[in-house]
Amino acid sequence: MKENKISSLLFIFVLWLIIFAAFSVEAKKNHKNKSKMHKHNKKRHGNYFANFPSPSPSPSPSPSSSPAPSGVYPTQSATFNILSFRAKGNGVSDDSKALLAAWKSACKVTGAVIEIPSEFKFLIKPITLRGPCMTHLVFQIDGTIMAPPNVGSWSKSSLYQWINFKWLHNFTIQGTGIVDGQGSNWWSSSQINPLKKKRSKIIPDMKPTALRFYASYNITVRDVRIVNSPLCHLKFDNSEGVKINNITISAPETSPNTDGIHLQNTKDVEIQHSNIACGDDCVSIQTGCSNVHVHHISCGPGHGISLGGLGKDRSVACVSNIKVENIFMANTLYGARIKTWQGGLGSVKNVTFSNIQLSEVKVPIMIDQYYCDKNICKNQTGAVAVSGVKFDQIIGTYSAQPIHLACSNSVPCVDVDLIDIQLKPSPGSAGIQQALCWNSYGKSRAPLVPSSMDYCVRSGNDLVKRISRSYEDRC
Fold this sequence. Notes:
Layout lengths: L1 H44 L33 E3 L8 E5 L1 H11 L6 E4 L4 E3 L3 E4 L6 E5 L2 E3 L14 E6 L2 E6 L3 E3 L3 H7 L18 E6 L2 E6 L2 E3 L6 E4 L2 E6 L2 E3 L10 E4 L2 E11 L5 E3 L3 E11 L5 E6 L5 E15 L3 E7 L4 E17 L1 E6 L16 E14 L4 E4 L6 E13 L10 E3 L1 E10 L12 H11 L3
Parallel strand pairs: 1-3, 2-4, 3-6, 4-7, 5-8, 6-9, 7-10, 8-11, 9-12, 10-13, 11-14, 12-15, 13-16, 14-17, 15-18, 16-18, 17-19, 18-20, 19-21, 20-22, 21-23, 22-24, 23-25, 24-26, 25-27, 26-28, 27-29, 28-30
């Protein structure tokens, strides 16, 4: 009985060992299978977080973004599209407020871009875009900006300019678009009526310049087209460090006083690789200008490249260090010209016109110290002194007169050099072969064609130079 009881306990113990062993084997098997499955899934899907897109880089500030605090600059330039400020871009609706809003937002951000998108036309009324702004502001014009075409819609206070840029530093205008002054109504109505012999009363005497910069520094204008301004197309006043490159300016030959580029009290200027066709001077350089380099320009129609008129109403005019070279002029009234009023004070000195190709230019070379844009001007003594002027390699055809040097009786022109001048009458023209030269001193070097230029400049003397320098001292 006792033996049977022991046998039963032994059987139960063995059976328990068998069950425990079986359970352990199954547990190890399940754990191994789970490990294999995890490794398989990891191999198949890779990193779990890789299935989600990585965070996008921070976008450039939108027009509604707050400006960066002072001293903190964004790492990316911000683009302020005028359409984002409720501009219509249909050429009819007034988009002036939208442009001003975009300007004010962009002005607060370093490296900002104000975008005028392509395939849109924006009607902009007279406006002033003021600085100072954060540096490296860009005005990207790829569409068209249009001035109001109706002369009567311009207020008297807005007649000086259409778009006025003021107090800017490190600013650029660029793009493939057009700045259209829509000046045809200003020109047609400004013509004298041959029946009534008077000007139309609806047109004011003052007409607006298309783009004007005032008191601005390190300004670049490139690539854009500026067309049909009521008056001057691009003007710089009291500015410094101006670069103009690869722009096109165009207006009809008959459009009055539509100068291409006008400089006044502005220094350190480079104008290059551009095409200018207008109704007045392609480039006009006025008092207070120095260190101006104009090169690789196509000019015509127009009135050529001019310094002046200077010294009007007995004012003091100072112009120095002007270099004009590698120019092509076709169908212009003048070529290289200096013009001053009688009675003026100051000086024009250190001026070079070189390598200028001409085609059917009325008067290729001119210094006129008797300039007058009226029917009658009073004779006056005194003049803006002209010295150190070189005309070098002026070659081509003329239709009226090859050279016109009319210097003041009281203040002769001194150190005027004529070097390699070859000018022939245009085919079929009645051009005058005789050069007009009066009271000019300097030197000449062959070839000089026509030969009448051989005696155009006389050898100077100390007395003549002292007279000229006495007027230069006023600058």
